[in-house]
What we know:
Two copies of one chain form a homodimer. By secondary structure, chain A is mainly alpha-helical.
Amino acid sequence: MTESRPVGTKGMPREEREVQLVVAGTEEFGRAGYAGASMVEIARRVGVTKPLLYQYFGSKDGLYLACLHRAGDRLTEGVAMTMAAGGAPDQMPLKVLSAIFTTFDHDRYAWRLLRDATVPATGDIAAAAADHRRRLDAFAVLGATQLLTSRGLADPADIEAVARVWTGVVDSLISWWIDRPDEDAAAMTARCARIMGGLFGW
Amino acid sequence: MTESRPVGTKGMPREEREVQLVVAGTEEFGRAGYAGASMVEIARRVGVTKPLLYQYFGSKDGLYLACLHRAGDRLTEGVAMTMAAGGAPDQMPLKVLSAIFTTFDHDRYAWRLLRDATVPATGDIAAAAADHRRRLDAFAVLGATQLLTSRGLADPADIEAVARVWTGVVDSLISWWIDRPDEDAAAMTARCARIMGGLFGW
DNA sequence: TGACGGTAACTTACCCTTGGGTCACTTTAC
DNA sequence: GTAAAGTGACCCAAGGGTAAGTTACCGTCA
């Protein structure tokens, strides 16, 4: 092999370190938002210093984009597979929740990156975040359309509102889940099933 | 009168200016979060300069606290009156929504201050925000308890999760509402009634 | 085998812009 | 002339970003 493998020097190989930094970045960005997060703090979490972070990711935006893409791609993939499988409209919410919980069981802050309000209004990040959100919202709108149509509601604004609320529900559940580290994905799914059954008869 | 009334000089009296600044601050903090908001931008919105803002509110935290207390107090008051009036558990959500929409029709960003994740983790602001949130969450927990109990669900964690989701639903609806300036409080309430009726039979 | 050079991982010390915060001063109504 | 409303110009810390150097592993060639 011409390059890579065991490594170069004292620490660890770049790939491994990058993963560490993206994980730490996701947590910090998810916790404090883009504006509130500090690069030196992210580096400190991993036990390295700021310049290494910059050498690997170029800028705060670069690191954020790496975190965002990882989270967005995993999320979109999981939801797409679930939605593609099909099913009754009022069964989809629980299935999607189950997929999300399973995907992010050990990476619970990732979801928040997609909905971070503190990113600059213009630029690469805004575009990338909007793109990921658009893809995800498309699924939400699809699900909302199926659900509302099955109940005889067809106002496009109603559909959009329901889709928006749905993403907010996921947001809240994940936020609550973050505060309960002992609850695993299966327990979360069971809880949601119980609640939805009790409240809506779904 | 020993002071106040018509004024002193060219602009407008302090009280009036303070209200303007709190309104502008609420919008900017609500839009960009505490960390992302800029004091000079808030002053600029009102047409004054930063030193005046500091003369009146002392610091960024001081302004934020003024905005937070105004929003929190109005919100708590409105919700408390609605909850005190009582009613069937599955009628409360719509009543509370109606109260919130009416209260914040012309101040839609205010709600977000209570749930701003970019405030520093410790200090006056964190304490005040936690306090307002605690009061509001108490209402949410109360409503969730009544609702879940009426359906035979009693797990305390379920109740907490539902309460958390409820606040997230309000968050989402207001966020959607902000994007629809033409929709007034009555229209929002009617929309929510229609959707809840269609989806849950409430 | 062991000196040596190359390279990757990593750091110390710095620069510079942004933005919170302040001071001394000016303008205007009474 | 006094007091309130308001400003221009400044200070300073925090944090994004960079330059230049240091450490340790590796291959390799006498």
